[in-house]
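Summary for the steering committee. The consortium agreed at its last meeting that each partner would contribute one worked example illustrating the joint modelling workflow. Our contribution is presented below. We chose a case with several input lines so that the handling of multiple components could be demonstrated. No manual editing was applied between input and output; the record is shown as generated.
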Amino acid sequence: MTSALKGRRVALAVSGSIAAYKAVLVARLLVTAGAQVQTLFTRSASQFVGAQTFAGVTGRPVLSEMFAPGAAGEPHVDIARESELMLIVPATADLLARLAGGRADDLVAATALCSTCPVVAAPAMHPAMWAHPATQRNLRTLTGDARVHLVGPVDGEVASGERGLGRMAEPDAIVAAALAALAPRDLVGRHLVVTAGPTIEDIDPVRFLSNRSSGKMGFAIAARARARGADVTLIAGPTPLPTPAGVTRIDVRSALDMQAAVGRALGAALDAADALVMAAAVGDYRPTSTHDQKLKRTADALELGLTPNPDILAAVGAARRGVRPVLVGFAVEAAGDAQVLAYARAKLDSKRVDVVVANHAADAFGKDDNRVTLVTRDGAQALAPGPKSELADPILDFVAKKLEEPG
Ligand code: CTP
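What follows is the complete predicted structure of the assembly.
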């Protein structure tokens, strides 16, 4: 999870559907990530889930009445004013219809009508209800208003046991949509090329040379760049990680494949992208010869000849005229802090890049968290250690700022 949710004020509206039980998990994920969650119930929500559960998870009582006896003020106005995001989980066909009609006939609808923050709705209903022209018409109205974003529904089993499009998106996807809605939109209209993961250099059909990179850092950067509005091309070495929503993924295997893919993505004149983030751990060497047949074991020692791979980033740095694309390099080292920074500074110049993200192999490889320092020509900025998804934003802050400078 990411710090992008820390301290953010989220109104979580729950409506009456079997899928409401998953809203508890959404609340839990939001709270764990540091969000302040105020739960709102429609009239029928409490027939599916308990208000006490949400109160326990969020630390705040659930609100469901427009005019609670004895309560001062207007809850829908206060909540709408205070919230940075309204999340509707689940959104029933009826609630969507009420919202599309601009109704204010319960606390949830009135709060949505009064709010100016983004609204993310996770529809859940029987596939026949989802497909109905009335629902589709309501959705067009809602999404046309531009403030309502939908997450799901997905194809799968629904409450009746039937299958189809109408099953609510999973809690993780809903939180990712919440994050996207809260992200600054400072990369809209920018094209970022991000590389991630290891490369693989084949020796023969069963053996290869590779490294321990998981790809998590690059995938996190791609996901956050997309959330901030960028068009993202993610060039990924072999990794089982799922493709972040909205990101164009190009799978590659070897360093040479990756170089060719980066070249295509940047264009011959390097003007097809605004930034290149080289988070991939590119293999520095490949076997001098690759064998079509499996190498057989013999009693003799085997020497493997290795040929240096091109340095993809340094080649782009050398070819770049001016300040675009913005170039972000990584330096993974197995050394002490001072030495790591010295290596990173050296890479800043040898690769002619704008920033080097320096980190330790022991902190980085295969881990969800990392500890990194941004090394630029102006100095070094150590970021607070944290999840890779959390480190993606400060790296992208640097890119966004650099892109504001005249090109
Ligand atoms: N890189 C690259 N092409 C290579 C090797 C590395 O583009 N053939 C990029 C990486 O994606 C990273 C940066 O260069 O952004 C630094 O990678 P790293 O492996 O730390 O450095 P090397 O240049 O390989 O130097 P060394 O292994 O000697 O530390």
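Residues 255, 278, 280, 282, 284, 309, 311-313, 329-332, 347 surround cytidine-5'-triphosphate (CB under 6 Å). The mean pLDDT is 94.
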